[in-house]
Automatic annotation (TrEMBL):
Protein name (database record): MFS transporter
Leader sequence residues: none
Gene3D superfamilies, sorted: MFS general substrate transporter like domains
InterPro entries assigned: MFS, MFS_dom, MFS_trans_sf
Membrane-spanning intervals of the chain: 21-42, 48-70, 77-95, 101-118, 138-160, 166-188, 223-250, 262-280, 287-306, 312-331, 352-370, 376-394
UniProt keyword terms in alphabetical order: Membrane, Transmembrane, Transmembrane helix
Boundaries of every Major facilitator superfamily (MFS) profile domain copy: 222-405
Amino acid sequence: MTLDLSRTSQHNARVLTTAQALGGASPAIIVSLGGLVGQQLASNPALATLPVSIFNLGLAIGTLPAAWVMRRHGRRLGYLFGAGLGMIAGLVAAFGIYQQLFVIFCLGTMIAGFYASYVQSYRFAVADGAPEDIKPRLISWVMVGGLFAAVIGPQTVIWTRDIVPWAPFAGSFVAQAILAALAIPVIWRLKSATSTRASASKTSNAANHTGRTLKEIARQPRFILAVTAGVVSYALMSFVMTAAPIAMVGCGHTVGEAALGIQWHVLAMFAPSFFTGRLIQRFGVKTITALGLIILAASGAVALAGLGLEHFWIALVLLGVGWNLGFIGATTMVTTCHRPEEKNRVQAMNDFLVFGSVAISSFASGKLLSVAGWELINWLIFPCVAVVLLMMLWEKRHQAMLTGV
């Protein structure tokens, strides 16, 4: 039974990694072009970045209904529905560009955010029913898909942005819809990762309960730590990354140098996924999560050390690596906080909090940079990291008291 389950989990990891590469390209396209299209279509220049912010908002809002759909209809049907949303999003955004309608374009990016809420849960789906000892590696495999998405998205923009000469960038959003369509036959191959024994147990228990309440689950110190680590890892990364290109140009560096820095940052975000799972297996999830947070703090220290190009680039690379270790570690911790019948609600609540914080950070970053400067952006990293590290020490002490060690 364990062998069959392990094979199913590895099959699903390959499916979801491929789906991640296709679905993860959608945010890359929106982040690359959202501001440029906003400048063309918005009547007020201050609204130019609104499509990207609305995408992040749609991602946060979409996590809860996505969980409901998957809980009611299963992972595969839920992800097929999500891919359908991805197709609609690209076509709506392209139509908005073609018709020069800013509101319609923003509607398309919001629907793309709903699609992204399904894509983001691939990292949890790969752990469904998997043996505990291989969960970190499976999650890392799916995150590797983000590395391919970081290449597919920008290349899609380069090859398709001028396909429709009278509607610049519309072709890229049609291509976004095509990428979502390509994900459908991939997702169709997703298998149920619940063993026969587990299914029988679940069926026998379903009449008795549907799991603990969210309030009860949220009181667990382990869950509080996992969510806080995820929020801090992702929100800090988004907060600093959003401000970095503006700060680089403001310090006299070229737009090309800023773009290259972001490219290395994105590669650093996903490349460690090849070995993050093995590190978690060897050294423990909390140790690797803490290491990720410390690397995030190191990125802030490098950024504060100077304003040279090397300071920005090294800081952005460290920011990406720290995010990878911290976020994969936090995701792994969340999978240990719920029972099978509770997974959709718990994972949705986690993602709502994580990506809600990301949406807030993306709105706040540019404004804070203009008001307080690049230095304050980086100083804020340290207290956030310190809070999570202190929570880890407290949780470790709490567990020791419970076990009497």
